[in-house]
Amino acid sequence: MPHLYRAILFGISALLAAQALASDISPERKQELETLIYQDCGSCHGMTLRGGLGPALPRERMSAYSTDGLAGLILQGIPGTAMPGWKGLLSEQEARWIAEHLQNDNPLEH
Amino acid sequence: MTLIRKSLASLTLLTLLSGCQTAPNTLGGTGDLGVIVERATGSLAVVNTSRQQRVDQVEGLGDLSHASVKFSRDARYAFVFGRDGGLSKVDLLSGEITARVMQSGNSIGGAISQDGRLVAVANYEPGGVKIFDSENLALVADIPATWQDENGQEQRSKVVGLVDAPGNRFVYSLFEAGEIHVVDMNAETPEMTRFTDVGKNPYDALIDPSGRYYIAGLFGEDGLVLLDLWHTGSGVQRILPDYGRGDERLPVYKMPHLEGWAMAGNEAWLPAVGRHEVLVADKDDWALIDRIPVQGQPIFVMSRPDERQVWVSFAHPANDVVQVIDTETRQITATLLPGKAVLHMEFTPRGEHVWISARDSDRVTVYDTRTLQEVARLKSESPSGIFFTDRAHRIGL
User: A50 and B341: CB-CB below 8 Å?
Assistant: First the structure.
């Protein structure tokens, strides 16, 4: 019985954590993440996301991934290419915020 | 134009003779001028290095993320290579854009020929090199960077590390193809020599100040590749292979830059890829002499013109720091904080000052390289590359 109780409690807190994801990031941190996208990701993908040594990142291309898939790609990188894994610098929810930004607020359509 | 210049000159003389002290100075040299690329606004700040001031602002240059600049041999005009494929010629004295072409979809930089008559641009999209008349930016040659992939299919590759070499040649590397191409511009049509299998993913390159050694850094493996331009028949040579000794590389958040690589005495100082180290190699046999631990992944490793100091900038996220290394003792003698997101450093021609851009602090800080004290601070929106006109007279810059 105590086990079940604990499991339920765990389930509820996991649910709350998932719902709280984006709102846990402070406005200041969101600003930093936006700078990171256009300036630092931009060193390879272009400041306007039109590409460079790395490919262009238009909204259309970003939306071919699930948000979780894209966040995972950002955190793990792509082995064998110049795309590094960013997990040392970004939390999972920050990577998810970036993925959502690239899929929904990306100024580059295609 | 000559006529106007002459009449202005006589006007100046007249005003001088009449004792007027407020006449504008209409004549000027360009030896102490330079430019700062302002990447977010697509503009160029023209600066004076004697007065440490901005003197003009040039707008309308397109997407300047990762833009670079070369100078005409009279050091009056700046050729600006934009990320969006725009190539612009800017008059530093008037602040005007005198010629501009959109020459590709995506470009990374360029070079000016030994005789000053040709400007070459390295393009990512479509991959190749285009060569223009430096006078009017008319197209002279279009050289696609083609290669055969493992299936025998012809592909185009992104071009990196384009430099000028003595003998009116251009040398560049192909990122996907792993090749180095040398183009001789002396004949009617360009003559190309191709070096294949030079190493995996050359990401940038440099030519040493004598113009003899072309060295490309490899992203896909440890080590670098060297082409001796005095003996191109001998092919390429791998140098510093396995400098990581099998250690796992850190994630590379930004590619190092090789331009401005430090040559100090008989040593070459260069950034390690994916490691918090500066490598020192012997220029005679290119053997590794030392690995100097630094505070992050180095991006620029540049020697002061007198070669007594090497200044190092770093990749994200440790990029608000610049470290200074004494080339004799190989000790870090200073760690400076020029601002957030340091992108570039440029020494004045004889090295008494260095200008450092801090992108996210919107400023350029000028340091005295002897005292390591700040001597000036210039406001600049999202500054990146800084380029002074003495580059006009140096091979590979």
Answer: no
**B347-350 own/partner pairs: CB under 8 Å, 24+ apart:** B347/B302, B347/B304, B347/B305, B347/B388, B348/B49, B348/B388, B349/B31, B349/B49, B349/B305, B349/B388, B349/B390, B350/B305, B350/B306
Nearest CA in chain A to B252: A84
**Global confidence as pTM:** 0.88
Q: Suggest the residue from A35, A50, A53 to mutate for an interface test with chain B (most B CBs closer than 10 A).
A: A53
With an 8 Å Cβ cutoff, are B83 and A50 in contact?
yes
Give, for A5, the enclosing helix (H) or strand (E): helix A2-20
B63 and A50 in contact by Cβ < 8 A?
yes
pLDDT digits (tens, 9 = 90+) for A51-76: 888 999 999 999 999 999 999 999 99
Is residue B280 within 8 A of residue B269, CB to CB? The reply is: yes
